[in-house]
Design goal:
The mean pLDDT is about 95. About 60% of the residues lie in helices and about 10% in strands. It has ten helices and eight strands.
Length: about 280
């Protein structure tokens, strides 16, 4: 039996009987479990009820109010929000750090995601060509993958992230919340600056990129050059998605994002090629 919380707690109710809506809620519930197992349950809002059986799936949770996106639009010093975000993100990385193959899995998915966007839409529109698709195909994710993983997901974006008392709140996770954290930071920084042009996002982008390269890189056991390559790879993926999204809405912007995606992919590929040669020399 569900007993609603006493006022003044506002709640959000998600409920679906089937289709995409139910699959999304089921994904959320699996994400809640994964987050709790990683020891970072504090990033979740108060989950009052979760149900996935019978004819429907549902979640009742605390309403967190304004997202990072909404807060940035009206904050007097929005650059400070990015500083608060990276402080909280550092703690997430340290708490969830683990030696496993989750970063490799995530990078394989990133590569597949970029390729699908290039082949599926951007090539047909003339934004990329066969050389760019081959560049994706030739990317060796084994050479790029850190041995450690931490908190990391694809949809870590300003509208999905909330800051409460300088802590990150993440109410709408997918089933996998572990991977390469630098990919998440690259997506957040890129969407904030290039897609949304949020207040303070230019300075925020520089802050997040520096944090990813100089602080998160060492946490997951890689060099600054390696971390920079991963940041570029994350940007290549995010820009390919943003390009596809704008194809039928803003062709010039979509074309620009496609070009930028290729530039970031080339930067990531240069480091990957060097690393691959170094490994081959060590084996010889």
């Amino acid at each position: 039996m569900y007993i609603p919380p006493k006022p003044p707690l506002n709640v959000v109710v998600k409920i679906a009987a089937g289709g995409k809506g139910r699959r999304e809620i089921e994904d959320n519930i699996r994400g809640y479990t994964a987050i709790r197992e990683d020891g970072i349950g504090y990033v979740l809002p108060l989950i009052i009820e979760e149900c996935n059986k019978g004819e429907f799936a549902a979640v009742v949770m605390e309403d967190l109010g304004d997202s990072f996106y909404d807060t940035a639009l009206k904050h007097e010093t929005p650059v400070e929000l990015y500083k608060d975000l990276i402080l909280a993100f550092r703690d997430l990385c340290i708490v969830t750090l683990k030696l496993d193959d989750e970063s490799r899995r995530m990078l394989n998915e990133v590569k597949s995601n970029i390729k699908s966007k290039y082949e599926g839409v951007l090539k047909r529109r003339g934004f990329v060509d066969d050389r760019d698709v081959k560049l994706v195909d030739g990317l060796d994710t084994n050479a790029l993958s850190p041995h450690y993983s931490a908190f990391g997901c694809y949809d870590f974006t300003p509208e999905d992230v909330f800051l409460r008392e300088r802590n990150i709140k993440y109410p709408d996770p997918k089933s996998r919340v572990r991977g390469c954290p630098i990919i998440s930071l690259a997506a957040f920084a890129g969407v904030s600056r290039d897609s949304y042009n949020l207040p303070g996002a230019r300075e925020g982008y520089a802050t997040m990129e520096s944090f990813a390269v100089n602080e998160v890189g060492p946490i997951i056991g890689i060099t600054e050059d390696h971390a920079s390559a991963l940041f570029n790879l994350g940007r290549a993926m995010q820009l390919s998605i943003s390009s596809v999204y704008r194809v039928d809405k803003d062709m010039e912007r979509a074309k620009e994002f496609g070009r930028m995606s290729i530039e970031h992919l080339e930067k990531a590929s240069k480091f990957e090629a060097i690393e691959r040669m170094r490994k081959e020399v060590r084996r010889s």
